[in-house]
Amino acid sequence: MKQILNQDVIWSRYELGTDFFNEYLVYFEEHADKIYKALNTQFQAREFEEMARSAHDLKGLCFNLGLEAYAEHLIMIERLAYNEVVEVLPAHIEQLPGLTKQAIAALVDYRTAQEG
After folding, report:
1. What is the pTM of this model?
2. Would you place residue 109 in the very low, low, confident or very high pLDDT band (cuts 50, 70, 90)?
3. Distance CA 42, CA 36 (A)
4. Helix/strand number for the chain, H first, E second
5. In angstroms, what is the C-alpha Rg of the chain?
6. Which helix (H) or strand (E) holds 96?
7. Are 50 and 66 within 8 A, CB to CB?
């Protein structure tokens, strides 16, 4: 698995300013939680195409922030949803809150290192 944070990509976001970076961090946290809840609801309703779209949406944000390991996990969810692999989808979805915590910690650590 790749590192949680690609330093080159996140630098390009951080250099836009700390206010922008902090807003992006808050947006990511809120959006990740929203997508996690949506994926659970969509799975219960067997809305697999919607699940794939939701995973795709968050994947783009993750790549934009340099969160490559998280994005790769979302690629897996997207593929599983498109193929309606119901046996393993819930286990992959349940990993998202932990990945979100890791991602936020990595982003905060990066910000702290830049400020120090």
Report:
1. 0.92
2. very high
3. 10
4. 6, 0
5. 15
6. helix 96-115
7. no
